[in-house]
């Protein structure tokens, strides 16, 4: 399952590049809009990068199940003898590997564009590494819910963004604390705890949501 | 004899019975809401003394606090009936959950608006990123998400089930709203009215508040009954009991 999704994603490499390009361009807009002062950019860098990554992932989320719904392979999945939650977990993992991982890889570049001190970058990466799977998992549940609808793009944003607020707060809190030289382990641990919890629950919830959305 | 409650509930969950039940209770609930609302407004705006520090501006709590309570209460009702709807697939529970959402969103909106009207003279700002305010705003977005998801489906029952699922996920926010003033020590003050233990508010100010709380509860009941009735009629259109109601309306 994982292999199949990764192969499919590899066949459409340009789709993988889109969120990355989007994040690069959005980050580039901030210095233009706010003026290229180092201190100001440094202060907002952590938050800007996190929000940009969040939005870039939101753009890509829509596609998680869409092609599978179109060709009917999602119904096959639901009917398959293997547990649906497990296979959806694999799908979510594949989605995370193809959208979030490239974003994390270019995050140091984004950080450098905004003059984030080099010492903070490991913390930023760690926060992203924990926060992006959370977003993928939350997002997958909501995408599954909207699977049967026609216009899901804006709706998805309306539903996902409020649920992402805690993840964003903790991730930004860790980066801000690291920037001020304070201990940053506490928000990171919160993120990790939330991630572990949703790793267990989200695939199950996703499976339940998908059954609701497809059952008609 | 002991199982008359489940039996009665079971009977009540059938759409025609609930339609009649709601139709009988609705005028009473609305009348009580108006009565308690009028008493509360008179007591709150005329009888209650002005605050020694805030003057007359504090009087907005007679609207703000009851609607804030209602915003959480309605979400809890919605979450519970969403759970019932998903587990037992009772059509009425779906209707109650989905028709609660707009009322709850309205109360949440009133809470935010009155809160910022009060915040301008008291805190000197319309809005601040305080834990209570932010979580209440998230609550509003959750309500809007539920409404939006419900309406995005062409099949209404399927939409109701999907939205019910979202409502259950979002219920985690309700305790966060409730305890936010205790967990994070930010601008919004802690609660002064306690169900257990003494309240830190004078009785002269407390009773209009409680009266308004009753008024909002009854208003919610009346409004929910009305909305559920309308919704049931359109969901069940084509069934015999709806046709009979329609015919009797025509006869009159």
Describe this entry's structure for a reader:
The complex is a heterodimer of chains A (216) and B (252). Chain A is an all-alpha fold. Chain A is built from 9 helices and no strands. In chain B, 78% of the residues lie in helices and 0% in strands. Chain B has helices at 4-12, 15-47, 61-88, 91-123, 131-152, 156-170, 173-183, 203-235, 240-251. In chain B, helix 3 packs antiparallel against helix 4, helix 4 (91-123) runs antiparallel to helix 8 (203-235) and helix 5 (131-152) packs antiparallel against helix 6. Chain B is globular. The mean pLDDT of chain B is 82. Classes of the chains: A mainly alpha (216), B mainly alpha (252). The A-B interface holds A 141-142, 145-146, 148-152, 155, 158-159, 161-163, 165, 205, 208-209, 212-213, 215-216 and B 86, 134, 138, 141-142, 144-145, 148-149, 152-155, 158, 161-162, 165-166, 169-170, 173.
**Secondary-structure element sequence of chain B?**
HHHHHHHHH
The total of helices of chain B stands at 9
**Kindly, what is the distance between the CA atoms of the first and last residues of chain B, rounded to a whole number of angstroms?**
41 Å
Helix content of chain B: over 70%
- What's the β-strand tally of chain B? 0
What is the helix fraction of residues of chain A, given as a range? over 70%
Radius of gyration of chain B in whole Å, from Cα? 20 Å
Return the average pLDDT of chain A rounded to an integer: 80
Which terms would index this structure?
heterodimer, A: 216 residues, mainly alpha, 9 helices, 0% strand, globular, B: 252 residues, 78% helix
Topology (elements, then pairings):
The complex is a heterodimer of chains A (216) and B (252).
Chain A: H1 2-11, H2 13-34, H3 38-61, H4 63-70, H5 73-79, H6 84-113, H7 121-145, H8 153-179, H9 185-214
Helix pairs in contact in A: 1-6, 2-3, 2-6, 3-6, 3-7, 3-8, 6-7, 6-9, 7-8, 7-9, 8-9
Chain B: H1 4-12, H2 15-47, H3 61-88, H4 91-123, H5 131-152, H6 156-170, H7 173-183, H8 203-235, H9 240-251
Helix pairs in contact in B: 2-8, 3-4, 3-6, 3-8, 4-5, 4-6, 4-8, 5-6, 5-7
